[in-house]
Automatic annotation (TrEMBL):
First-tier enzyme category under EC: isomerase
Superkingdom, taxonomy of origin: Eukaryota
Gene expressing this chain: Dmoj\GI23383
Gene3D superfamilies: Aldolase class I
Reactions that this protein is recorded to catalyse: D-glyceraldehyde 3-phosphate = dihydroxyacetone phosphate
First and last residue of the signal peptide: none
InterPro entries per UniProt: Aldolase_TIM, TIM_sf, TrioseP_Isoase_bac/euk, Triosephosphate_isomerase, Triosephosphate_isomerase_AS
Keywords: Gluconeogenesis, Glycolysis, Isomerase
GO CC terms: cytosol
Annotated GO MF terms: triose-phosphate isomerase activity
Name the record gives this protein: Triosephosphate isomerase
CDD domains with a match to the protein in the record: TIM
This enzyme's EC code(s): 5.3.1.1
Pathway listed: Carbohydrate biosynthesis; gluconeogenesis; Carbohydrate degradation; glycolysis; D-glyceraldehyde 3-phosphate from glycerone phosphate: step 1/1
Naturally occurring in which organism (per UniProt): Drosophila mojavensis
Length: 248
């Protein structure tokens, strides 16, 4: 194995209420989770403190977004300082839904990542291509462009996990095979070696996201360059425990 610690994130997106979150937190608290895997829960901001108080300390909690400055006249936004204040230690940035629906640019996302890291949060930095981009043979070009934007702003990659999410594999019925996922992850390692350093290429964890389920997690987890998952819908279900334990 690579020596990189497996890392599984559950992104609840805009789902959950106090009752269902209490139930999920109980399932996770009672489960025998692989101690060799980092687990992080991306919780809706208004429930972060609630979830943090219900989850064991061994499970991290993440904001699903944050702005690029600490405070100010930015109605509706949340800063990394605020996330830290309520117990979050991670933030998910650059998710495909932020890019596609809310029109966040590569540059803005990179600025957010730079600020979050400076404030002491760990960052799950998302990248990934759309179906049109993949079918046009532009996958590597797109993920390299997104990585370039991050690289202009991130000097120290220690507290970064990259999540590769093929947008076309999220809710489309099309799924990336373990080989397709591994191919992009291997390209990303090569890109890191050539553009950042061999050390970062060897140590940076790259998660796969996009229709990860208990059924396909074990096969994906066997791939040498896949260091974990960013899980959407399945993270709201008990099967998330099996995904966390995919390497067990």
């Amino acid at each position: 194995m690579s020596g990189r610690k497996f890392c599984v994130g559950g992104n609840w997106k805009m789902n959950g209420d106090q009752k269902s979150i209490a139930e999920i937190c109980k399932v996770l608290s009672d489960a025998q989770l692989d101690p060799n895997t980092d687990v992080v829960i991306g919780c809706p901001a208004i429930y972060l403190m609630f979830a943090r108080n219900l989850l064991p300390c061994s499970i991290g909690v993440a904001g699903q977004n944050a702005y690029k400055v600490a405070k100010g006249a930015f109605t509706g936004e949340i800063s990394p300082a605020m996330l830290k204040d309520v117990g979050a230690d991670w933030v998910i940035l650059g998710h495909s839904e932020r890019r596609a629906i809310f029109k966040e640019s590569d540059e803005l996302i990179a600025e957010k990542a730079e600020h979050a890291l400076a404030e002491g949060l760990k960052v799950i930095a998302c990248i990934g291509e759309t179906l049109e981009e993949r079918e046009a043979g532009r996958t590597n070009e797109v993920v390299a462009r997104q990585m370039c934007a991050y690289a202009k702003k991130i000097r120290d990659w220690t507290n970064v996990v990259v999540a590769y999410e093929p947008v076309w594999a999220i809710g489309t019925g099309k799924t990336a095979t373990p080989d397709q996922a591994q191919e992009v992850h291997a390209f990303l390692r090569q890109w890191l070696t050539e553009n950042i350093s061999k050390e970062v290429s060897n140590t940076l964890r790259i998660q796969y996201g996009g229709s990860v389920t208990a059924a396909n997690a074990k096969e994906l987890a066997k791939k040498p360059d896949i260091d974990g998952f960013l899980v959407g819908g399945a993270s709201l279900k008990p099967e998330f425990v099996d995904i966390v334990n995919a390497r067990k």
